[in-house]
Design goal:
By secondary structure, the chain is α+β, with helices and mostly antiparallel strands.
Length: about 220
């Protein structure tokens, strides 16, 4: 266990500086000693529904998507994790030793640090910097989940698709989104026809350009 190489230690420092947290020197040492460095290729699965959570991820680079299944077995996108993030659901469920109700998949190639759940609990008591990091991440994700619930309950597909595209641009830092109409429909739990119709409408309005397996955002 641990990853005491200069490259990986530098990654931890990047993570902390990105988030603006002040982690104690002893905490930094513990992360380097107890954390496990892991790389996941695009499409790889970090966690499946029904698994027991043994560790929580700290995202160094790349994007993870967090999903769940509804009562009818349809997959629902909850939120994305990118550089500097950790998974709020894993933070909570991991301390209770119950089966996961979420699925975590790599949207892009990812580099992670996995923190064993037993260390997470210990550090909550031991380190103020870790405690603040966990609380802030949990609060941020709860707010995001409330937005997801609101979008399903009150928003139409047009508003949801527009937010989906906006989130993709923000996370990838690129106005070109490589995806398919079917994949977007699946993640938004709607029909491909509805997605295609809206994209064509926005293309005719000059807001985006549709290509083969990609969309270029112009002024959405």
């Amino acid at each position: 266990m641990g990853f005491n190489t200069l490259e990986n230690i530098y990654m931890v420092k990047q993570l902390i500086e990105h988030n603006g947290y002040e982690f104690e020197d002893a905490l930094m040492h513990d992360i380097q000693t107890e954390g496990v460095y892991k790389e996941i290729s695009k499409g790889g699965k970090l966690l499946e529904i029904g698994d027991y959570i043994k560790s929580i991820p700290l995202v160094i680079s790349g994007v993870l998507k967090v999903l769940t299944d509804d009562s009818e077995g349809n997959e629902l996108l909850l939120y994305y994790l990118s550089h500097g993030d950790t998974c709020a659901n894993a933070l909570v469920i991991g301390t209770r030793n119950v089966k996961s109700e979420i699925r975590v998949i790599a949207e892009t190639d990812c580099k992670l640090i996995l923190i064993p759940t037993q260390n997470m609990e210990e550090w909550l008591i031991k380190y103020k910097g870790w405690r603040q990091f966990v609380i802030d991440n949990y609060q941020y994700r709860i707010s995001g989940l409330l937005e997801v619930v609101e979008s399903f309950a009150f928003s139409n597909i047009e508003k949801r698709l527009r937010k989906y595209l906006s989130d993709k641009v923000h996370l990838s830092k690129s106005k070109i989104i490589y995806t398919t109409h079917q994949k977007m429909a699946h993640e938004l739990n709607t029909s491909r026809v509805a997605v295609s119709r809206l994209l064509k409408k926005w293309e005719n309005m000059g807001q985006l350009k549709i290509g083969r397996n990609y969309i270029k955002i112009l002024k959405l």
